[in-house]
Design goal:
The protein has 258 residues and is of the alpha/beta class. It has helices at 30-45, 75-94, 110-117, 143-148, 153-162, 168-174, 186-198, 202-215, 220-235, 238-249; strands at residues 6-11, 14-19, 51-56, 60-62, 99-103, 106-108, 120-124, 128-130, 166-167, 179-181. It has two domains: 6-198, 2-enoyl-CoA Hydratase, Chain A, domain 1; 202-249. It contains ten helices and ten strands. Strands 1-2-3-5-7-10 form a six-stranded mixed sheet, sandwiched between helices. A four-stranded mixed sheet has the order 4-6-8-9. Helix 2 runs parallel beside helix 3. The longest helix has 20 residues, at 75-94.
């Protein structure tokens, strides 16, 4: 029987996805990344799922990628690994449903990209975050992408060139995580947040994520145009109509995701 790299656990409208490679510190090999991407796509297409919690089994959230001995690998092999890396991170960013990271352990290298791609994050107060590749004689060529989205140039270079870890309080201050708490409270807190998000208007949540993603790569005027177009789409959706009707009738809305 093939090893199951990603475990699934449903809590009502919330789907928990667990990276299941604890013996390898939840490092991502191609099979694991492909399985995780498939699990995310399944959650996207499942109408009963409204929010996702991503975590790791054991003592680590994700300790980067497991490329293997790159010396014996061809450029095609390395590119194949990199493409899987890009696809799984893009899958999280492009998902219409919110993804909350529950960080119960350390995060390193490409795992930091995985965390950064999530929409929200709860972390253990004893977690550490790093891109340590430089200490291994290489450099965080792909992992640096996540760092540059949360740090200034000098801050990113400090992490990348020195390989220094930041602790949970520093990660909170830089915006890498939203909340920190004792390790035993990480999953309950992440699940509580996800349950709350699962009750929000799914059209509004989806368009908010989509707009943020597009704004990051757009000029100001086109940002406003995109925002206006999406506002029209949102306000003419069935769920927006339901939101208004529910307020008038003083009852909880019943979302149809349309």
């Amino acid at each position: 029987m093939a090893e199951q790299y990603v475990l699934r656990d449903d809590h009502g409208k919330v789907r928990i996805l667990k990276i299941n490679r604890p013996a390898q510190q939840n490092k991502l090999n191609i099979a694991c990344m492909d399985e995780l991407r498939k699990a995310l796509q399944d959650a996207e297409s499942d109408e009963s799922c409204r929010a996702i919690v991503l975590c790791g089994v054991g003592e680590h959230f994700c300790n980067g990628g497991e490329l293997g001995d790159y010396r014996s690998q061809s450029p095609v092999d390395i590119r194949r690994f990199g493409n899987s890396f890009i696809k799984v991170h893009t899958a999280i960013s492009n998902l219409a449903k919110p993804v909350i990271a529950a960080v119960q352990g350390d995060v390193a290298g490409g795992g930091l990209n995985l965390l950064e791609a999530c929409d929200l994050a709860v972390a253990s107060e004893d977690a550490n975050f790093s891109v340590p590749e430089i200490t291994l004689g290489i450099a965080p060529m792909m992992a640096l992408t996540g760092v540059t989205r949360i740090k200034s140039r000098k801050g990113a270079m400090q992490m990348a060139l020195l390989g220094e870890a930041v602790d949970a309080r520093q990660a909170l201050a830089m915006g890498l995580v939203n909340w920190i708490c004792p390790r035993c409270d990480v999953m309950p807190m992440a699940l509580k947040i996800a349950i709350g998000l699962a009750e929000r208007n799914p059209v509004a949540v989806s368009l908010c994520k989509k707009l943020y993603g597009q704004i990051a790569a757009s000029h100001y005027e086109s940002q406003l145009e995109m925002g206006l177009s999406m506002l029209v789409t949102l306000l003419k959706s069935e769920d927006a109509m339901e939101a208004s009707k529910a307020r008038e009738e003083k009852r909880p809305p019943v979302w149809q995701n349309r």
